[in-house]
Amino acid sequence: MIYTFNGSELNAYFGLSTDYARERDQLTKEQGLIHILWNQSNQASTVFVDNTPIVLKPNQLTTSTYLQKVAFEKGSSPIAAFSFNREFYCINTHDHEVSCNGIIFFGTQSIPIITLRDDEIDKFEMLYRVFVDEFTTRDNIQGEMLQMLLKRLIIKITRLAKTQLITKELDNNQIEIVRKFNVLVETHFKTKKQVADYADMLFKSPKTLSNLFAKFNQKSPLSIIHERIVLEAKRQLLYTDKTTKEIAHELGFDEVSSFHKLFKKVTSMAPQRFKHEAKNTAIGKNEQLVGKS
Asked: How confident is the model at residue 197 (pLDDT cuts 50, 70, 90)?
């Protein structure tokens, strides 16, 4: 079942799907959606995000944005989805309220998987029921109420992500630097490819950033920049008919050879080989997947 809110003045959209894999075709007219996916079933379910399989166990959540391609295996367990566009709630404009960018949305790290512990499940299920109740209440403040609930949901998930996905060795100020670095890379990766570029914007030295990320995880800031560039290249190779030269130019490379070198460094294969092999994976077999977007 799908519950929806449409704000006609600003083309705002917010929807709640109880079984997104099967119901998403009803949302195809909506563009630029950000999703929070929650496996409420008692069985694990596989979600493909940008050709990467993600196993969501019962009461685990993940997120995706309009930049990512999502698909599901046929027969997968029902997954609930909260889907909204920037006209309904712009996480960039309201980042000071929820501080989620770079952690659960538009991050450069691995796709976030957040687990609801036993003491959190009841709280999230109660919030879910409040969402359903509000979706069925039609009045002139419905949009404001749903936006308030969505903000609460994002804050709760972000808090869990900080405790589960980020080492406790980092304090709040260090977490904020990591988060802002991720957001800046997401924004500027096509034009800025050196750690020093981002260090300047954060008023830090490149060494300070490198030391911080060594504490955070095993990826260096330069590796994160490179992986974000290659991720975009993969998306273009998989989902467009652009040539390698066109993709290289779009990603800010003056020389195609430089793009080839970086792509091979990150993936251990040339772009065309990646594209060829990807066609033979599950993401390219429509009979095994439903609802690519």
From this structure: very high
